Amino acid sequence: MVRSLTYFHSLLIILALASFSQKEWYKKELSEEIEKQYAKQLLEGGSYSSYQGSVPEQMHYYEAIRMDSSIAELWREFGTARVKRGILDEMYYFYGEAVERDPAVWAGFRGYLYLYFYRDFERAIADFNLGDQANGQVDYSQGQNHDYMRGIAYYGLNNYPQALDQLNSYIDQTIEEAGAEWVDVYALLYKGLSLIKLDRIDEALKTFDEAEKIYPKLSDLFYHRARMAFMKGEYTQALELIGITRNYFSEGYYHQRPYVEVLDQIYLQDIDQLEGEVREAISGSG
Question: Where are the alpha helices (DSSP H) in the chain?
Answer without folding.
Answer: 2-20, 32-49, 55-67, 72-83, 88-101, 103-116, 121-135, 146-156, 160-177, 185-197, 201-214, 219-231, 235-250, 268-285
